Amino acid sequence: MKTEFILLAAKAVNEAILASEAEIESLDREIGDGDHFINIKRGCATIVGMHDELAALTPDAALQKIGMKLLSTIGGASGPLIGSFFIAMAKTVKEQGAESLPEIAAAFAAGVEAIKHRGKADVGEKTMLDVLIPVSHTFTRLAGEGFQRPALFEVIKREAEQGMLATRDMIATKGRAAFLGERAIGHIDPGAKTSQVIITTLCDLAAK
After folding, report:
1. What is the mean pLDDT of residues 33-47?
2. Where residue 207 falls among pLDDT bands split at 50, 70, 90?
3. CA distance 41 to 45
4. CA 13, CA 88: separation in Å to the nearest integer?
5. CA–CA separation, 82 vs 91, rounded Å?
6. Which of 3, 126, 146, 179 is the most buried (most CB within 10 A)?
7. Long-range pairs of 58-64 with CB within 8 A, sequence gap ≥ 24
8. Is 184 helix (H, G, I), strand (E, B) or coil?
């Protein structure tokens, strides 16, 4: 993972999130608090706006700077969760590197674990973790087995979509959706959809 890739990824993810605005906002109106997309949009725009100050940094320093910035920029629950993701990734990249796929998978796993710890949530609770945790496990396993990039990223994309779709039949236990009880069944979690859009975008970019 190079800093150049981080900058390209920020731009690509920002464009993908904006293109998915109508769908994500609709999902958030159905079971969320209505500000999920606003916060994610603000976060993406913030990272893109950091281009010049990130360009000269090492990958771990760039990830750390992004994480700290998002902690103070994104509102709601998203800021601490996503900020923690980047900070945990930065620490792992600094300690272990991020040149090989297993190293990148380890950094991603550390970021997901930070979200899990910070949000006190797990798979099956109708959150972004229903996408992130299965994707992390699959990424770690396939990278360790020596899967080549194109095939690996296609599998991860499918895993992300399956995780996102699985939230439709779940009862939420976290956030505003938890107050809806069984009324949340039948609706995809907006955080899971956002995560699926981001992961798909990153996979397409990394596979090039």
Report:
1. 87
2. confident
3. 6
4. 20
5. 15
6. 126
7. 58/3, 59/1, 59/2, 59/3, 59/6, 59/93, 59/98, 60/90, 60/91, 60/93, 60/94, 60/98, 61/90, 62/3, 62/6, 62/90, 63/6, 63/87, 63/89, 63/90, 63/93, 64/90, 64/91, 64/94
8. helix
Dihedral over Cα of 4, 103, 134, 147: its sign: positive
CB 31 within 8 A of CB 184: yes
Tokens 């190079």 correspond to 2
Token pair of 156, please?
A: 């991860």
Task: Tell me the percentage of the chain whose pLDDT exceeds 70.
Answer: 92
The per-residue pLDDT for range 4-36, each reduced to its tens digit, is 999 999 999 999 999 999 999 888 887 666 678
Question: How far apart are the C-alpha atoms of 90 and 67, rounded to whole Å?
Answer: 8
Amino acid letter for position 198: I
Q: Supply the pTM of this predicted model.
A: 0.92
The CATH class for the domain spanning 3-206 reads: mainly alpha
Residue identified by tokens 């293109």 is: 19
- In the chain, domain spans: 3-206
Residue located via tokens 């690509």: 12
Structure-token pair, residue 101? 């796929």
**Tokens encoding 128:** 């972004």
